[in-house]
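Notebook B, p. 112. Complex prediction, attempt 2.
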Amino acid sequence: MPETIEDDSVGIVETQIIHFSEALMLECEKTLAEYDIAYETYGELNADASNAILICHALSGDQHAAGYHSMDDKKPGWWDSAIGPGKAIDTNRFFVVSINNLGGCKGSSGPNTINPETGAFWGPDFPIVTVKDWVKCQYRFMQSLNIEHWCAVIGGSLGGMQVLQWAIDYPDLIKHAVVIAAAPKLSAQNIAFNEVARQSIMSDPDFCDGHYLAKETVPRRGLMLARMLGHITYLSDDAMRDKFGRELREGKLNFGFDVDFQVESYLRYQGRSFVDRFDANTYLLMTKTLDYFDPASEYGDELAQALNKTNAQFLVISFTSDWRFAPERSREITRALLEAEKRVSHIEIDANQGHDAFLIPIPHYMNVFGSYMKNVAEDLS
Amino acid sequence: MTQAIEHLHGIENGGLRADLDIISGWIQPGTKVLDLGCGDGTLLAHLRDQHQVLGYGLEIDRFNIEVCVEKNINVIQANLNHGLKSYFADKRFDCVIMSQTLQATEQPDLLIEEMLRVGAEGIVTFPNMAHWSARLQLGLQGIMPVTKNLPNQWFNTPNVHLCTLNDFEKLCLKHDIQILERAVVDHSHKKGGWLTNLFPNLLGEIAIYRFRRNP
């Protein structure tokens, strides 16, 4: 917990909720009659509302991107390293908006909230939402804040996919697109990992076909396994070797099936703590959102065609040791942008932390990102 | 190091360095340009601001990249030795420039082919290994030349494929490449006088060529 708040922190922040009563038609052809969106903001909106930035979160992220909810918090928001006064996304200059996506589990309508039509938990009946649905929903959200355009939309991983979708779907409402550690669509291997995660959740007897909340239980083992698997894909082989090697937890082999190695203990800890903060149905839903993302599919499978109508300036960032969304996947995005003659810079950061590197304040990464954002700020007037 | 960077990318006498000035004079306004090994983006910034060029740079050095991003240059972090295939389809550019980089690449001949694959024209500049000062050092002293343009020793030089004007022109002939323009400048990047232009391979320190595929 922070004893004092650092000078470059946004400080104590609060989640707010906006209720939308206008129906939202989804890609799955189901309609949400009404819904809530939980969000946080950092910094001040300027007089002509030109300095707003949207932060898009990844699979297990939420609206709490920076600062602390209270002095009792153990950790700040998930991207505190990049958002704050004087940081890459400088809250002295920008008004930063971070929302919990639809289907999430941190206050926005999702499987763990009440379906107003039935009065019961949505559970597995919450419709599967796509990145396109999210972006549409974020667009409505933007209107409700009286923001006419984003000076930048920024996100990593699944967040980066939302940035791409924004640039494609609302080309005139986004001036800069920062796409970090993302991919234009998932590979068969990516989908395969997601499927194993889903199977581990759904095969947990406590899953109860998704109605576990109604039965006052939680598929702990399944969700924990899914997170353990996911976590392996977020780290690189090198990062794991550096962090754990073959270090033994008790200094000796126990010749049993309980924890011998530190890495096992770490994964179990990550899995267990995830269960306490995340909802299994949301995890299922968001992995499907990832699997379905393929903006080129609407444009004859030509990504360059999909990006052709974008007007944003792009910054694409990838990390050398990321194997979940490897640098080649980011290059596909950049190649398509170049083919469409769009303004783009592509930076490949030398990092050994794997996919997780996008959350780590690596100096070269933060320098480039910060410089780019300074130009975004200068572009405001 | 600072000296080397100034040497390669600096601005002299408050204007654009003479070789870059020659290059920018060869670029048509409003065209699309790729600069391979764009350094700190000086040329691209000039072409963008003065010639309304849509420019992109490839660069490997992270410090140069930070400066490019600061200057709001479109820069792609990439290793030229891996070729241009992962980023560029055929004939995307009006002109592809490679300034003071050719001699440090692994396969200059293949890279020149790549330049003409992605662009209609190419421009290269390189230090001339047949300049009289280099000839004197190798011919009389029997040592690998160290000059203002080639400041490194043989054991630590990044310049693994040095050549002369004659070498370059022979390569162009072999690869069916038409030379459109040639210029030479001295070590302080001053444009060559009449004598230099008469004996470019002896008196020119830096060679600048504009070329395309033979029509």
